Amino acid sequence: MAKFSSKEKIRGVRRYLEGTEGGKTIAKSIGVHSSMLYQWIRQYESSGENAFKKRYKPYSSQYRLVVLHYMNEQRTSIRETAWFSTFRLMKHLGSGK
């Protein structure tokens, strides 16, 4: 399945909201299933353009080093380490220094 940028999603939604084209026609022209387009429309109607903004922030280099240090110190796997929340992991390592 193709990924669509925020701009592409908004463009498709606006085409639909203009009322000159049907949802199935728009969906087919941009290469997405009509149910996905209708989902975008609902998201747009409830949250506006903010619905399509990325909500995550990449982890900093410092945080990544903390995680690797924890994994090495505790001999945990990636899966085991993932169970720890950021707060608990940072607190644990912060107290050891």
TrEMBL record:
Domain of life, source organism: Bacteria
Pfam families hit by this protein: HTH_Tnp_1
SUPFAM superfamilies given in the database record: Homeodomain-like
Gene Ontology MF annotations: DNA binding; transposase activity
Transmembrane regions listed in the UniProt entry: none
Any single GO BP term: DNA transposition
Protein name in UniProt: Transposase
Organism, as annotated: Bacillus cereus VD048
